Amino acid sequence: MDLPLLASTFATVFLAELGDKTQLAIVTISGTSSRSGAVFAGSSLALVLASLLGAAAGGSLSSVIGPDVLQLAASVGFLVIGSRLLIKASRPEPDGANADGPEAP
Questions:
Q1: Which region among 19-28, 79-88, 93-102 has the lowest average model confidence (pLDDT)?
Q2: Mean pLDDT, residues 35-39
Q3: I need a surface site. Which of 10, 85, 93, 95 has the fewest CB within 10 A?
Q4: Which residues span the domain enclosing 33?
Q5: Do 42 and 22 touch, CB atoms closer than 8 A?
Q6: What total of structural domains would you count in the chain?
Q7: Are 39 and 29 in contact (CB under 8 A)?
């Protein structure tokens, strides 16, 4: 087993997941349930499955597309998403507009 690769992957995913919306959702679900063990098991299984799909897709794609192109595509994807979020956040909402829908009377 490639221990440096394992350690760097663990550190990257661990740090990336701290404080993200998934963790906040888990805190919310756990706070509304008295069975935090079930919440932990479900969220762990979901992360493992998502990671498995990502690793399988990356492994399959890397045999067809070079790693540099995959990194470039991922970088461009993050830049596009970030740019769209920044643009949306910088636009003022029209008067009377509510992002959650119409207000109740």
A1: 93-102
A2: 91
A3: 95
A4: 3-65
A5: no
A6: 1
A7: yes
Distance CA 67, CA 71 (A): 6
Nearest 5°: the CA angle 72, 80, 12 is 60
93 DSSP assignment? P
Q: Where are the alpha helices (DSSP H) in 18-103?
A: 21-31, 36-62, 67-90
The pTM of the whole model exceeds 0.70: no
Region of 104 (left: φ > 0; alpha: ψ -120 to 50; beta: rest) is beta
In a domain, 71, yes or no: no
Q: Beta strands of the chain (E only): which ranges?
A: none
Does a structural domain hold residue 52?
Answer: yes
Asked whether the predicted pLDDT for residue 29 surpasses 70, the reply is: yes
Angle at 52 between CA 20 and CA 44, to 5 degrees: 50
Q: Which amino acid is at 93?
A: E
Residue 102 has pLDDT above 70, yes or no: no
Place of tokens 């998934």: 22
